[in-house]
Amino acid sequence: MRATARALAGDQQPGAAADELLKFLAGNPASALRVANACAALGALDHAFAILDGYYFNAGKWAAVAPAAGDADRISQPLFLPPMKPAWKERRFGELLRRIGLEDYWRESGATPDFRTS
Description:
By secondary structure, the protein is mostly helical. The protein has one domain (2-116). Helix content is 55%, strand content 0%. It has helices at 2-8, 14-27, 32-41, 45-57, 85-88, 91-99, 102-109. The protein is globular.
């Protein structure tokens, strides 16, 4: 994560930091959501969404980062942390929320998620 901090401070190129994060993720699949958050913060949204596809749907290049126990181990809270803010207005983020069932949940419960009001 030092690469992320250096890039956010302007001491390293964001693309180079994202590359370091992906190398780290390859050997540390349990860090998928942290790496997706860092990629989003760096503006590397294609990488962030590829990781999220692997994590939530066991699909694509990062399918190996999917939790072994499947949905029982998947969490969504990191999607709404400040580093993910660059992704929130993306069409792909809305599609992700729909696919994992959060849009249905919010509609049925009448709740408005905090990230939409901040």
